[in-house]
Design brief:
mainly beta, Immunoglobulin-like, 5-stranded antiparallel β-sheet, 4-stranded antiparallel β-sheet, 12 strands
C-alpha cells in the first residue's frame, strides 16, 4: 500500500510539474482524417488461458510547443495517458494498461501487426525532473543523445512483473507507439497496433493459488474500470442487489 501511495504522489508531481519553459502553442495533430481530439482506443480481440490479443488505435496526439533558450521543442501526449519518464531523454507518449493473466503462468508480449505514419520537423522536449508549483530547476537535456541518428525508444512493448491484486493476477502492459529520431527530427508513429500476450510454462513467483472467491459488485466495478480484459476472465461474480 505504501508503494502505491508513493507512486501516486510521484504521478501527481508529474501532472503538477512546472518548468522554466514558456508555452507558445498547443494543438491536436491527427494521424489520419480524424480532427476530433480522442483518447487512444483499446479493444480486446480475445483473451483466454493461452493468450490475450488487444488492438490499439491512436487517432492523434496533443502537441505543445515549448521554447527553451533559443530552441523550440514539442511536448507530445495522448489524452488520458502519461509519458516516458527518463530525465533528459525525449518525453514520449506511452499507453499503459492493466491486463488480467492466468494464475501461474509466465507471460511475454509482442506486436503482431501494425500501421505506421512518419511525421517530420519535430524536436521532442526532454523529460524534466518533477517539481512542486513555484519551484525551479535547471533545464536538463542529454546533448549527446540528441545528436544520435536512431529511433528512440528501441523497444515497442514492455511488461511489468506479474503481481496479485486481491482476486486477480495482473501485469502492467506498456506500449510505446511514438519513436523519435533526434538527428533527423522524424517521428515514427504506430497509429494502429495489435499486441499479443502469450502465456506459457509455470512462473517461479507471484502465482495465485488461493481458491476463487465470489467478487462483490463493488469490486467488480473497480476491476472492470481498471483491468482491460476483465470481462474475459473466469471469475465468480456476486449477485447485484436491486
Amino acid at each position: 500500500m505504501e508503494r502505491l501511495k508513493n507512486i501516486s504522489i510521484f504521478l501527481m508531481l508529474i501532472l503538477l510539474a512546472a518548468s522554466n519553459a514558456s508555452i507558445a502553442d498547443t494543438r491536436w495533430v491527427s494521424f489520419g482524417r480524424d480532427i476530433k481530439r480522442e483518447k487512444p482506443s483499446a479493444r480486446v480481440i480475445t483473451s483466454n488461458d493461452s493468450e490475450t490479443v488487444i488492438e490499439f488505435v491512436i487517432k492523434g496526439m496533443d502537441v505543445e510547443d515549448v521554447v527553451e533558450g533559443n530552441k523550440t521543442f514539442q511536448k507530445l501526449r495522448f489524452p488520458g495517458y502519461f509519458t516516458s519518464l527518463q530525465v533528459g531523454k525525449p518525453q514520449l507518449p506511452v499507453i499503459s494498461e492493466l491486463v488480467g493473466i492466468p494464475d501461474v503462468v509466465n507471460v511475454k508480449a509482442s506486436i503482431i501487426d501494425s500501421e505506421v505514419t512518419t511525421l517530420k520537423g519535430y524536436r521532442v522536449y526532454p523529460f524534466q525532473e518533477p517539481v512542486f508549483e513555484g519551484e525551479k530547476k535547471a533545464f536538463i537535456i542529454d546533448d549527446a543523445f540528441y545528436h544520435e541518428d536512431s529511433f528512440y525508444p528501441e523497444f515497442d512493448v514492455k511488461l511489468s512483473t506479474p503481481t496479485i491484486w486481491r482476486d486477480i493476477r495482473v501485469v502492467r502492459l506498456k506500449i510505446f507507439p511514438v519513436k523519435f529520431n533526434p538527428a533527423t527530427g522524424e517521428l515514427k508513429v504506430f497509429h494502429r497496433m495489435i499486441v499479443k500476450l502469450e502465456y506459457y510454462g509455470v512462473s517461479d513467483g507471484d502465482e495465485l493459488y488461493a481458491p476463487k472467491r465470489v467478487i462483490s459488485p463493488t469490486w467488480e466495478r473497480i476491476y472492470k474500470n481498471k483491468i482491460l480484459n476483465f470481462d474475459f476472465l473466469n471469475l465468480k461474480k456476486g449477485v447485484k442487489r436491486l
